[in-house]
Amino acid sequence: MKRLVIDLIAEEKREEEGGGRDDCEMVVRRVCERMDSWKEVESNTIDMMVEFDFRRETDGWKRTDREQVVEIAVEIEISIFGLLEEELYGSFA
């Protein structure tokens, strides 16, 4: 939390310097406003954002590399079949 507040203060100071002012009260007020706005975020918002990000990455991979997905699926099937063969031969030995 401490690191988060320090980063917010540094960001607000950079924005204030860009405007030509370095008003400490203004920086503190803006940091407090930003932290207060986070209280309004619903508890499941972060979970939804992470889920959306993972889904987008997975869907993108499936869409753009269809041939690679099929190739990997075949390799997995062959590996499973090979393991089943070994197990079957082992049970007869």
Describe this structure in words.
This protein is mainly alpha-helical. It has helices at residues 2-18, 24-39, 45-64, 66-92. The protein is elongated and about 80 Å long. The model has no long low-confidence stretch (mean pLDDT 77). It comes from Rhododendron griersonianum. This is DUF4378 domain-containing protein.
Which helices and strands appear, and what pairs or packs with what?
Elements: H1 2-18, H2 24-39, H3 45-64, H4 66-92
Helix pairs in contact: 1-2
Protein name: DUF4378 domain-containing protein
H-E order? HHHH
Q: Helix proportion of residues, in percent?
A: over 70%
Radius of gyration: 27 Å
- As a percent range, the share of strand residues is under 5%
- The backbone outline, from C-alpha atoms, is elongated
> Gap between N and C termini, in Å?
62 Å
Mean pLDDT reading: 77
- Outline the biggest β-sheet: none
Stretches with pLDDT under 50, minimum 5 residues: none
Number of H/I helices: 4
Query: How many beta strands in the DSSP annotation?
Result: 0
Summary keywords:
86% helix, 0% strand, elongated
Explain briefly what this protein structure is.
With 93 residues, the protein is mainly alpha-helical. It has helices at residues 2-18, 24-39, 45-64, 66-92.
